[in-house]
Amino acid sequence: MTSRTPWKRMAALLAASTLALTACGQADNLAEDEETTAPVQTAQETETDQPPATEGDGGGEPGEATIRFAWWGSDSRHQMNQQLIDAFEAEHPNITVVPDYTDWGGYWDKLATQTAAGDTPDVMMQEERYLREYADRGILANLNDFDVDTSKIDPSILGSGEFSDGLWGIATGVNVRVMMADPEVFAAAGVEMPDDKTWTWDDYNEIMSQISANTEDGVYGAQDFGIPESVELTVWARQHGQDLWDPSGEIGFDPETMAARWQVTLDLIEAGGAPEVSQGLEINAAGPEQSLVATGRGAISPFWSNQLEAITSAAGHELQLLRYPGESQFERQGLFLKPAMALSMSASSEYPEEAALFLDWMLNSPEAGEIILSDRGLPANLDVRAHIMDQLGEADQQAAQFVEDVSADILDSANTPPRGAGEVNSLLQRINEEVLFGQITPQEGAERFIEEASAITGD
């Protein structure tokens, strides 16, 4: 799924219904440039169509409001969110919250369709790759304009929703990138676990190669497939004093930096420290529970901290979390807190005060925290995080403690991705495979990625 695909699909859909839209007074919302072909309802257009909304003002009974909450997820998340809605409505009987959910695959098409029709949900889940796109289109409300308490939100993650002089989304919870390690494989290889505060990328290649050499066939040091997703490039670039994106949403690193990261993986594969490329591709595509660490076939696999419980369960024994190599090797630390997802509000909500109240309650209420636990990452609200810690499972507590430890060293948030970031991630996957299979050199891959990613995001 790319960030632009839903909008382009909506262009064809809306073209067939122009007369109906015109009759409804919506045709003026058709976007004119190619990059925004789907009709969207901007905040300014909404204000001219109806009077400013105030609490309890919207055509219903005085003091009563109905708002809609949209999210993606599994059945367990749907049930959890219904519990949230029930608890909130019990505290606020004048507000009705209507659930609006689907799976990840259909969420963005559905949200684009609703937005094009001027029917954006009042409160919605957002993801960092799409947040700027929706904000720049005028679809999201600036949360700084509402009574949403951010005083207890982890300051190192709050910035992920701040850009363009506004706050457009607030992280529900945080994850951090980790090297998930199997102590049993290290022990079988006779190799000591590294000091993750000081180890370098050279140490990483040496240790992983040694583990492969000291264990039976089919067991490897690392599950390393280069740069299959943007987070690997983000950490590496930040370690080198750069970033995947600069604050304005343009490419924030040079091609030499990217090429050097690919060379780390190519050297590791050549030394036997990671599976051959074709095998690595299969392992990478199989999912976390079939990873090297989860199946006892490797010492280290890179994942997000909130995946520890599932992978520990698959492995059948305790795993250990390590910082990425190179955190003290170059110009600065590269790790950052990633928003698991964000909560945003519609700029065209008929009941903005009620929507803000619900959003605030989900972020800041201990009762909400007890229902959500770590489903949306370790809670971004520090008080709620402390409140629910004892209620987490053993692996989740281990992950939470790791996040706490790493947070003390994290310097800042990664910059917010620009419009088109989802499509850029797909581009990265394609070029990554071409580099690892030797079809192009790392330098050629880096230069091509920067050129094509810049074209996608409109730099």
Quick gist of this model?
The protein is an alpha+beta fold. About 45% of the residues lie in helices and about 10% in strands. The protein has helices spanning about 5-15, 20-25, 45-50, 75-90, 105-115, 130-135, 155-160, 185-190, 200-215, 230-240, 255-270, 275-285, 310-315, 350-365, 365-370, 380-390, 395-405, 420-435, 440-455, and strands at about 65-70, 95-100, 125, 160-165, 165, 170, 175-180, 220, 300-305, 320, 335-340, 340-345, 380.
What does this entry look like structurally?
This protein is of the alpha+beta class and 459 residues long. The protein folds into two domains: 5-15 and 29-172 and 341-392, Periplasmic binding protein-like II (D-Maltodextrin-Binding Protein, domain 2, 3-Layer(aba) Sandwich); 176-337 and 420-457, Periplasmic binding protein-like II (D-Maltodextrin-Binding Protein, domain 2). 45% of the residues lie in helices and 12% in strands. The chain contains 19 helices and 13 strands. The chain has helices at residues 5-15, 18-23, 43-49, 75-91, 104-116, 128-136, 155-158, 183-189, 201-214, 230-239, 255-270, 277-286, 308-315, 352-364, 366-372, 382-388, 394-407, 421-436, 442-457; strands spanning 65-72, 95-102, 123-126, 162-163, 166-167, 170-171, 173-181, 220-222, 298-304, 320-322, 337-339, 342-345, 378-379. Strands 7, 8, 9, 10, 11 and 13 form a six-stranded mixed β-sheet that branches. The protein has a five-stranded mixed β-sheet with strand order 2-1-3-12-6. β1, α4 (75-91) and β2 form a beta-alpha-beta unit. α11 (255-270) crosses α19 (442-457) and α18 packs antiparallel against α19 (442-457). The longest helix has 17 residues, at 75-91. The protein is globular and about 70 Å long. The two termini are 21 Å apart. Mean pLDDT is 87; it is low at 1-62. Keywords: Signal. Residues 1-27 form the signal peptide.
